[in-house]
Design a protein that fits this description.
It is a single chain. The chain has one helix at residues 3-22, and strands spanning 28-37, 43-45, 50-53, 58-61, 67-72, 78-86, 93-100, 104-106, 110-112, 135-138, 145-147, 156-164, 178-185, 192-194, 197-199, 204-210, 216-226, 229-232, 236-241, 250-254, 258-259, 268-275, 288-293, 297-298, 301-303, 309-315, 329-337, 345-354, 362-364, 367-370, 377-382, 396-401, 405-408, 411-413, 426-432, 441-449, 458-466. It is mostly beta strands. Strands 11, 13, 15, 17, 18 and 19 form a six-stranded mixed sheet that branches.
C-alpha cells in the first residue's frame, strides 16, 4: 500500500470512529421528511417546520428539502413514540412509530395540510406591498389548556400570531421583523416557550408552550420592536392542568361521619373525592370518579372541578348493616383510573356511621342525699344510641338542677364523631348544695335534644333528699 492510499485509509477510519462516537449507544436517530400537497397534488417539501417528539421533549426543524433528523434517548429497549410537525399556515399533523434503542431509523413522511385563509384578513399576496408592522394579534384559535409534563396527555400548545400594517395588510418580507415571546406569569414548574423569538414570514410567526411539572395559569406575551416602538399582543391566558390520578393523592371524605341512618331514611350526606396527580396538583377538571356503597344508596359518578374535587350524595336507605352492634357502618368507595386507557384502577374509601335511636340516659348514682354541709356529689352519665355509639353532631345535652350549683358537662354540643368514650358517649358533672340550701328535695334533670333528622329526644332525672 502506497503512502497516499495509507493516508486515505487512516482518514476513513478516523471519520468512521468520529461518526460512531457522536451517537451514544442508547440514542436513537430518527430521519424523515415533511411535505404538503400543492394544487396539482404534487408533494412539495416544507422547510422550517417544527418537528417534536411528544413524549420526549426533543425537537428540531426541517431543512429546505423538508428533511429532518431528530436524536432521542428512549427509556426502554423499544417504545411507542408520537412525532408532531407544525408550521404557521398549516394544520398540525402527527405520526406514530415504534422506535428501538440505539438505532437509526426512517420515519414515515409527515404530510401537512395548508390552512384556509382567514376571511377577515385578505389572503396573502406576496406581490402586495405592505407598510411597517403596526399590529400584532393572535392568528386564529388556540388550545385553552394543556396538561403537565409526564401526564400522558397533550403537553404542548401551538400559538400563531400575525403582524399587519396600519391598513390591516399582513406585512411583507421587506418589512420583516423579529417577534419575541415570553411568559409573564406562570406556576414556575419548568414551563417554557419554543422558540423564544422568530422572524416573520409573510407576517406570520408562532411559538409553542411546553408545560412543566406544576399546574396553574400561564400568561404568554408576544412583542416586537418596530423602529423603537414596542408593539405587544394582548397577553394570552392558558391553563396547565394536572396529570392523571395518583393513588397516593386520592382520598374520600364524608361531610358528616355520623347520620341517624337507622332512624330516618332519605338523609343526604355529601361525599367528596379529592383527586391529585403524582406532583400533588389537582387532576384535570372533568376527571370522572365512580362511587359505590355496601349499604344505603350513593350517586354513581361525578366529575372533578378545578381543585380536583368530585362531590355527590350518599343517602340513608335499605339495605342497612345487618349486625349494627358489631358493624354499624356504611362503606363508600370511590374509583377512578390512573392511565388514559382506563385499565389501571385506583380506589379510596370512607365510612359513615348509621347510628340508631337515642338510648335511655344512664345516670349514676340514681339517688343521693345531702345535708346542710356544702359537700359536693359527683355524677356520671351516658348518652348514646341503643348500640352504644355516639348520637349525631349538633345534638345538645343540658343538665339543670332545681337547687344548688352544677359544674362539668352540663351544657354539651355533640361533635360529629364515630368514636365512643369520654366526651362523646360518657360524661360527668358535680352538684354542690351550698352553705344555705334549705330545700327538702332537689331534682337534677338531663335532657338530650337532637336535630330533626337526628336520633331522637331523651331525658332522665335523679332525686336528692335532705337528711337533716
Amino acid at each position: 500500500m502506497n503512502k497516499l492510499m495509507y493516508a486515505f485509509a487512516l482518514l476513513a477510519l478516523f471519520s468512521f470512529i468520529s461518526c460512531t462516537q457522536t451517537q451514544d449507544a442508547t440514542d436513537t436517530i430518527i430521519n424523515g421528511h415533511v411535505y404538503y400537497l400543492d394544487e396539482n397534488y404534487q408533494a412539495q417539501p416544507v422547510s422550517d417546520a417544527l418537528v417534536y417528539a411528544k413524549e420526549m421533549y426533543a425537537q428540531t426543524k426541517t431543512e429546505s428539502d423538508g428533511s429532518y433528523s431528530l436524536t432521542i434517548t428512549p427509556d426502554n429497549e423499544e417504545m411507542q413514540l408520537t412525532l408532531i410537525a407544525s408550521k404557521v399556515g398549516y394544520d398540525l399533523s402527527e405520526v406514530q412509530l415504534l422506535i428501538p434503542k440505539g438505532q437509526t431509523i426512517q420515519a414515515p413522511d409527515i404530510s401537512l395540510k395548508r390552512q384556509q385563509q382567514d376571511t377577515i384578513i385578505s389572503p396573502i399576496d406576496t406581490a402586495t406591498v405592505s407598510g411597517p408592522a403596526a399590529h400584532l394579534t393572535v392568528d386564529g384559535s388556540h388550545q385553552s389548556h394543556v396538561y403537565i409534563q409526564g401526564s400522558g396527555l397533550e403537553e404542548t400548545a401551538l400559538i400563531n400570531f400575525i403582524l399587519t400594517d396600519a391598513q390591516g395588510i399582513p406585512i411583507d418580507d421587506d418589512h420583516q421583523v423579529t417577534v419575541h415571546f415570553s411568559i409573564l406569569n406562570g406556576p414556575d414548574g419548568g414551563e417554557y416557550l419554543y422558540p423564544e423569538s422568530m422572524e416573520s414570514n409573510n407576517g406570520r410567526v408562532y411559538t409553542i408552550l411546553n408545560t412543566g411539572s406544576v399546574s396553574g395559569v400561564v400568561q404568554i406575551q408576544a412583542s416586537v420592536d418596530v423602529d423603537g416602538k414596542i408593539i405587544r399582543a394582548l397577553p394570552i391566558r392558558m391553563s396547565i392542568y394536572g396529570g392523571l390520578p395518583d393513588e397516593e393523592h386520592f382520598s374520600l371524605v364524608a361531610n358528616r361521619v355520623n347520620i341517624a341512618g337507622r332512624v330516618h331514611y332519605g338523609i343526604l350526606d355529601k361525599v367528596t373525592a379529592y383527586v391529585g396527580d403524582k406532583y400533588s396538583n389537582p387532576v384535570a377538571p372533568g376527571t370522572a370518579v365512580y362511587f359505590s356503597s355496601d349499604y344505603g344508596i350513593v350517586e354513581g359518578s361525578a366529575l372533578t372541578d378545578e381543585l380536583g374535587r368530585a362531590t355527590l350524595n350518599f343517602m340513608s336507605a335499605s339495605p342497612l348493616p345487618p349486625n349494627p352492634l358489631q358493624n354499624p357502618f356504611a362503606h363508600i368507595y370511590a374509583t377512578t383510573y390512573s392511565d388514559t386507557l382506563g385499565t389501571k384502577e385506583i380506589q379510596s374509601q370512607t365510612q359513615v356511621l348509621l347510628s340508631a335511636r337515642t338510648a335511655p340516659i344512664s345516670i349514676t348514682p340514681t339517688t343521693f342525699t345531702y345535708t346542710v354541709e356544702n359537700k359536693a356529689i359527683a355524677f356520671n352519665y351516658t348518652v348514646s344510641d341503643i348500640y352504644g355509639y355516639p348520637i349525631v353532631g349538633e345534638s345538645s345535652i343540658q343538665v339543670n338542677a332545681t337547687d344548688g350549683s352544677l359544674y362539668g358537662d352540663v351544657s354539651v354540643r355533640m361533635p360529629d364523631t364515630q368514636i365512643s368514650g369520654l366526651g362523646t358517649t360518657e360524661f360527668g358533672f358535680v352538684w354542690a348544695p351550698g352553705d344555705s340550701l334549705k330545700a327538702p328535695q332537689v331534682y337534677i334533670n338531663v335532657v338530650v335534644s337532637t336535630p330533626v333528622d337526628g336520633n331522637g329526644y331523651q331525658s332522665a332525672s335523679v332525686v336528692g333528699v335532705k337528711t337533716d
